[in-house]
Amino acid sequence: MNATSSVGALLLCRAEPDSVRPVAHLLRERMLLAPAGDGWSVLVPEGTPWRENGDGGDQEAGEQAVDSVLGGWAAALAVGAPWPVVALWWDGDRAGCTLASGFRRPVGYVWLADGTPAGEDEAMRTFAARLGLDPVHDVQELEVLTRPDPGADARTRLRGLLAVLTRLGLELPPGLEPGDPAGRLHATAGSRAGTERIAWAGWRDAVRLELDAVESSGLGPWVRGPRARALAVAQLAAGLPLAAWGMGRRSGGWAFAGALLIVHGAAGLAYDRIRGDAGKRGRP
After folding, report:
1. Which of 9, 150, 256, 268 could form a disulfide with 76 if both were Cys (CB 3.0 to 4.6 A apart)?
2. Model pTM?
3. CA 217 to chain centroid
4. Residues of 130-158 as b/e, b for ≥16 C-beta within 10 angstroms?
C-alpha cells in the first residue's frame, strides 16, 4: 500500500441505518451512511481528518494518525448505543481494526503493510467474544490472521477479517474494498442507491433526530417514566464531565462520547416530557 494514496477507513456498525443515523450526526463529521447487510451499516468518511502519512512525515499541528482518529470515532459511536462498532483503517505502513462496545475498553489488532502480525493474540479472542462469534471455528479463522503468512499482505488480512464477519450478516456494498484510498471509497459509496449523507446540523437537530429514532423504533412506551428519567439524568451527569475532560485532554473520541451521552440524556428527558404532556392533553 502506497504511503499517501492508500490511506482510508470504514466504520462498521452492527445496527440498521435508522439506528446509526442520529448517533453518527453527533460525530460532527461529513460521512456517507449505507446499509451493509443484515443488521449492519457502514459509515464512509467524506474527508480525511488525519495525517496522510503513516510514518508521521509532513504532519501538521493537530493532525492525528488514521488509527487514532478511527479509534476515537468508534468509541464515541458505541458508548451511547447498544450495538458495537468495528473500525477498519489503513495507511502506507500498517492496517488494523478496532472494536468498540459500550464503556468497555476498545480492543484492536494491527498488521504491517506486508501482512506481518503486530498485535496480541488475545485481542482476537476478545474480539470474537464481544461480537458473539463462534468460539471454536470463527476464533480459529481469526487466529490464522495473527500468524505469519508471506502470501498475505495487510489488505488480505482485512479481507480475511471481513470474511469472518459475513457470518454475522455483514455484507459491504460492492466496490468498498479495504486498502483503497479514502477518495475512491467515498466516490464508490456515494454512487450507490440507498446511501445518505451525514452532516452536523447543530444540537437542536441532533436532539430531534434522537427523538425521531425513539419514535421509529417503537420503544416509546418503554422510555418513559421514573426509570427512564433516572437513566436520562445519569447520562447527563456522566456526559458533562466526560465531554469536558475529553476537550481538556484534546481527546476527540472521549469528548464525542461525552457529547453523545449528553444528547441521549437530553433526548430522554425531552421525550418523557413531550409524551407525558401529550398524554395529559389527551385525557377527557
Report:
1. 256
2. 0.75
3. 20
4. bbebeeeebbebbeebbeeeeebbbbbbb
